[in-house]
Specification:
8-stranded antiparallel barrel; 1 helix; elongated; mainly beta
């Protein structure tokens, strides 16, 4: 009985010692924590953003900007400088010498001069323009019983007012047609001498029709091409009555006027 008790006590002591050793081993060798996952992530690097370009709001004289109006329309005012060709047709002539009709025809020279035009748009389609130009022409009577007679020269100032209808407002290319009237004054009249010692030319006028187009080049600059047909008769007198060579002539000038130029919109 005593031996069995001692065996049990020894077994208990051995078990306790084993438990204590295991506890010490756990305390002396703690389990190391797992390494933390890396916090770095591979990502593309964004390119630096440049500051937006700002404009001062000023648009140059020869620039087309976002504020530039395309084409022509209501309220626009233009000034145009053109090269003008004046081509008299001399369709019908009558000449009298001392009151008696004689054969022959009047011939007027052609001329090229600068022209200034002012134009205003009442609506997108309807405009009015005034042309100002003066050209010098020489006049002769051909095929008369006296042969060719150099009559003289004169400057003509034919202000013409035209109402035009524009077919494509607010477009770069804008064709038009128009109708108007011309009143012509002759000034700086000079007789040729010889048979003609004195020369007078009366004021005249008549209707006119035109067609042309405007084309926007850049900014407020436009190119213009225009053809006008004017209808007018010239009345001229050479020398004095009773001088022995009083000459009177009527001529249907009916000039065709061709112009091409640059215009600016204000």
């Amino acid at each position: 009985m005593i031996r069995k008790s001692r065996s049990l006590l020894a077994a208990a002591l051995l078990a306790g010692s084993a438990l204590c050793g295991a506890a010490k081993a756990q305390t002396a060798s703690p389990v190391a924590p797992a390494p933390a996952a890396s916090a770095y992530v591979n990502a593309p690097v964004a390119a630096p953003v440049s500051a937006p370009v700002t404009h001062s709001g000023h648009c140059g004289l020869f620039e087309t900007c976002s504020s530039t109006k395309i084409g022509l329309g209501k309220g626009d005012f233009l000034i145009r400088l053109s090269a003008l060709g004046v081509l008299p047709e001399d369709r019908d002539s009558k000449i009298w010498l001392n009151g008696a009709a004689i054969p022959g025809r009047v011939k007027t020279t052609r001329q090229v001069m600068p022209e200034l035009t002012f134009e205003y748009f009442f609506t997108d389609n309807l405009s009015i323009d005034l042309i100002a130009a003066s050209t010098r022409h020489e006049v002769a009577a051909e095929g008369t019983p006296l042969g060719k007679i150099d009559v003289g020269s004169a400057w003509v100032l034919p202000p013409t007012v035209t109402f035009a209808w524009h077919f494509r407002p607010h477009k770069r290319f804008n064709p038009y047609v128009g109708v108007g009237g011309t009143l012509a004054w002759f000034h700086n009249v000079s007789p040729a001498g010889g048979v003609v010692q004195k020369l007078n030319v009366g004021v005249t006028g008549g209707p006119s029709f035109n067609a042309g187009f405007d084309y926007q080049l850049v900014g407020n600059w436009f190119f213009n091409f225009d053809v006008k047909q004017m209808f007018m008769r010239m009345h001229a007198w050479a020398n004095d009555r009773g001088s022995g060579a009083f000459i009177k002539a009527h001529d249907s000038l009916d000039p065709t006027v061709v112009g091409a130029g640059i215009e600016y919109r204000f």
